[in-house]
Automatic annotation (TrEMBL):
Signal peptide: none annotated. Belongs to the GatB/GatE family. GatB subfamily. It catalyses: L-glutamyl-tRNA(Gln) + L-glutamine + ATP + H2O = L-glutaminyl-tRNA(Gln) + L-glutamate + ADP + phosphate + H(+). One of its GO terms (cellular component) is glutamyl-tRNA(Gln) amidotransferase complex. One of its GO terms (biological process) is mitochondrial translation. Residues 4-288 form the Aspartyl/Glutamyl-tRNA(Gln) amidotransferase subunit B/E catalytic domain. It comes from Nestor notabilis (Kea). This is Asn/Gln amidotransferase domain-containing protein. One of its GO terms (molecular function) is ATP binding. Keywords: ATP-binding, Ligase, Nucleotide-binding, Protein biosynthesis. Residues 344-409 form the Asn/Gln amidotransferase domain. It holds the Pfam family GatB_N.
């Protein structure tokens, strides 16, 4: 059997206000406290696009090697649900802001991370769209409450081609995307706060045969759960087919407590979203250095070349620099970048100690990181500061204490 995995990822844009209204974006605000008339779809209200959201999407597209469309269009996608007050979502179905990109990611071939292989997944498109509100189900009173705080928040939907074949690959690709978004500042991408939500499309087929019927596992909110959900779904489909069953084209959810996917709804009668052009928004026009009109107000246009020149070093470049500068192993550079704040911690220790970086990295990864993991602490919550660890390693280098004593400390 050949498994096929494609991902659709919704990243919440890091912006103070929503995509088409001036409402604040605020996590965990009191219910329905940051909702404008437009977010609530009051008649006569009109969308006004948020420049920051456009720039964030362009920046992300450039970082993912996409072609940026200088002219993109907005559409209405219709579906009827309590937390979507307008009865439609404004998205980019026909001509999105960015297309035809790629994302390179690395994964280890064994558990020791001693051998890394690099793979590439194609990015079909990146589109701007609004988030919907949130339904809160109160089972004890048999009622559903609606919170519209999230309605209208700007999202980037990153659509990946089905180029992956297992949960580990899907998880590695999403982790790399998450690091890129956080490096750019285009999204905080905190999965626990719903700022990065993943839908996985999974199918299996025999080699040389057409792709099988796919299922979609919706709204996975952790990288660990993503790997588990994809692998479970692949195994479930293989067992179903080998036992003479058929795979339904359906939407499923991952139950993290049971470790399995469960059916949500079938897709046999394909939902008709009745896409239509958004009549209240003109085409979104972007410029580069060549096409920029003379005497233009820079506050009124988005210049692709200007954004491209200001792109920061991406994670792959940062890792290469760490390896070159400190002589550490490539796999160690992955760990440094994967743990928030660990690169800075490592560099601060190196600056303050006579110990060679190759030995420092061993202490940080083997001793400090395992201690933090045991106690469920982040690097920023570490009781051992970089200067204290540097002092300890200096004592060790001068042979004033033994390695065993240092580890006890």
């Amino acid at each position: 059997w050949v498994p096929v995995v494609g991902l659709e990822i919704h990243a919440q844009i890091s912006s103070n206000s929503k995509l088409f209204s001036g409402s604040q974006v605020q996590f965990a605000a009191p219910p329905n406290s940051v909702v404008s008339f437009f977010d609530a779809s009051l008649p006569g209200t009109l969308p006004v696009i948020n420049r920051r959201c456009v720039e964030a999407a362009v920046m992300t597209g450039l970082a993912l090697n996409c072609s940026i469309n200088k002219r993109s269009l907005f559409d209405r996608k219709h579906y009827f649900y309590a937390d979507l007050p307008a009865g439609y979502q404004i998205t980019q179905q026909r001509v999105p802001i960015a297309v035809n990109g790629s994302l390179s990611y690395s994964l280890c071939t064994d558990n020791k991370m001693s051998q890394m292989i690099t793979k590439t997944v194609r990015i079909k498109q990146i589109q701007l769209e609004q988030d919907s509100g949130k339904s809160l189900h109160d089972d004890t009173r048999s009622q559903t409450l609606v919170d519209l705080n999230r309605a209208g928040v700007g999202l980037m939907e990153v659509v990946m081609e089905p180029d992956m074949c297992c949960g580990e690959e899907a998880a590695a690709a999403v982790r790399e995307l998450q690091l890129i978004l956080q490096t750019l500042g285009s999204s905080h991408a905190v999965m626990a706060e719903g700022q990065l939500r993943v839908d996985a499309n999974v199918s299996v087929h025999h080699p040389g045969e057409p792709y099988g019927v796919r299922t979609e596992v919706k709204n996975i909110n952790s990288i660990r759960f993503l790997a588990k959900a994809v692998d479970y779904e692949i195994q479930r489909q293989i067992e179903e087919l080998e036992n003479g069953g058929t795979i339904l084209n359906e939407t499923r959810a991952f139950d993290s407590k049971l470790g399995c996917t469960v059916p949500m709804r079938d897709k046999e009668g394909k939902q008709d979203y009745r896409f239509m052009p958004e009549p209240n928004l003109p085409p979104l026009i972007l410029y580069d250095a060549k096409s920029l009109p003379a005497n233009v107000n820079y506050q009124q246009v988005v210049n692709i070349d200007w954004i491209h020149e200001r792109l920061p070093d991406l994670p792959s470049v940062k890792r290469a620099k760490l390896v070159e500068q400190y002589g550490i192993l490539p796999e160690h550079s992955f760990t440094l970048l994967n743990e928030d704040g660990l690169t800075e911690f490592f560099e601060n220790v190196v600056k303050q100690t006579q110990m060679k970086p190759k030995k420092v990295i061993g202490w940080i990864l083997n001793d400090l990181l395992s201690y933090l993991n045991q106690h469920s602490l982040t690097v920023k919550e570490s009781p051992v500061s970089s200067s204290i660890l540097a002092d300890l390693l200096n004592l060790l280098e001068k042979k004033e204490i033994s390695s065993t004593a240092a580890k006890q400390v």
